[in-house]
């Protein structure tokens, strides 16, 4: 895997250009990098406590069933079992959920999806806990599951709140407008699992005050604390969440079905209780990407300029609402893509089914519609006989244009530049007809068919995502910066999930205060809240809070010197650990200026407010947006239907490069996750039953599947309303890469490719003659 990135003009080309790599714009390595590489980093699965018990959760084998009875007597009588809990033992009420309180900790009267929890056991050995859970006798009345979201509209209610979670009928411009050229399509997007590196694990420890401490890989510790306290019937002050090492995070770390039973068992036994989920439990328990059905009709004039987009979008939320309302808002709002569309009629629904729950996965809502609207652009280009890249350039969005929601794009939107960059990047060479060259063909040297059957295709995908929460979400974070003895400490409850916040926080303080040694304190709920670690929040909101706190400390540090020399603090600068004045009269070190004092400050960052979409889908719902353009080059064996992604050229607007190496890693990771969604990742659930919930049955892309990734252009046009001007980095390439791969397969085969992941039969070329 390769990348080519632009080095910011304000930073040295390499870290060796100065005494130590620090400050914004440098590739400062993570403090945890060595421990993670050596396998010594403490993840939740590594935790231990004196008197430890082990937990196991009983999960439903059915997608839909009425619970007639639950008999726990056999499990309770087993030697080594200290507690068995069911819905009857939940003091705070039956419902829980981060964004929608519709999900029970344990199923009581009805099971709504395969793998739903019914009971939990605590025992003195993990094998005993598993056997005890298996000994619980549940009598079911199996019901017919509703697994087709289209059937959900007319089905009996699956939940007291009904089957419809949200409906958005967006109307923009003239509903009667038409174009000279019309193309239509029906598209299906599969169920992608977040597939975390490490499965869910955690430790619950009872407190002397009757509360509990949860040591879990949480991405929103205060949200998890509040949720747990409500379910346990406790005051928030008696529940503490301590964030352990998070081995990557998305929907799997935001689901309460693992840690809520854990804390309940600790409260019942008075002992520490640990849970380490198996890979199968991980697949069954956490949410996945929303499977989506999309119907599109694009209208354009004879020159290929878009006139109107009509779309129907149906999201399968699974059994519970979770974040489906948010995902639908993103899908409907970005249904036309980063293109100027004068008229739009978009209708979206999110419905309950008896499929596994869907939730937050990078680019939720935006990925699904991107695959569809880019397929439509390919169809339109083919019908008009226009180059696909040229057609897109005729329609791309720019700053000042208006979205179908009526919101004006005020942030930088260099979409034309991004697309031109990837279009003009040199194409990779064609494979050579040699034994070594066989590796370049789909299937490798043992699996490839005839080289003559391999065709190369080039395709494009342009994705857009929103940053931060939307539709009136109050985004706020608090941070404290302390300095003493030449060492700075950052206290902020923003969780390091792999996106690099801890490293960024160090760089911010180094840049602002000129102090080399900066540490980020471990996260727990004794600190002020910072919100969930998703959608670029950590860089924007928490990074902004750290910057403000550091600047306040900087003022405290410089004010005595400025007063002494009769000048303002603005005339003093800090660089490389030294404080100097504009005229050179003052020159001292930060350590000398500190003079043994302790300085500290606490600050908040709160972006400008947004508003909910109204009854016609109109409103300023988003704080900011990020864009990414990708050109995919694929080789397809048109007889076997096998696909190899040869290369992906990526251009992205990043606002400002804060850490070049970290940014490149985030983009490459996002692109690769998108390749998985395009070609292999699909959690199959026939009749609502998760089929082969393991990493053999669920095909993740490996290092052999990862293509060459060339980051050809990072546009640094700063977003003036964002701290540092930086934008979210990882979600936009996840959104764009599946669309680009599908577009390239479409170009190679001539097939419509209307389903993700791409099935082999969809990549077999149409017969000719």
UniProtKB/TrEMBL annotation:
Pfam families: Ald_Xan_dh_C (PF01315), MoCoBD_1 (PF02738), MoCoBD_2 (PF20256)
Entries under InterPro entries matching the protein: Ald_Oxase/Xan_DH_a/b, Ald_Oxase/Xan_DH_a/b_sf, Ald_Oxase/xanthine_DH-like, AldOxase/xan_DH_MoCoBD1, AldOxase/xan_DH_MoCoBD2, AldOxase/xan_DH_Mopterin-bd_sf
Biased composition (Low complexity): 1-17
Residues annotated as domain Aldehyde oxidase/xanthine dehydrogenase a/b hammerhead: 38-144
Region (Disordered): 1-33
SUPFAM superfamilies linked: CO dehydrogenase molybdoprotein N-domain-like (SSF54665), Molybdenum cofactor-binding domain (SSF56003)
Transmembrane segments: none
Name of the molecule in the record: Molybdopterin-dependent oxidoreductase
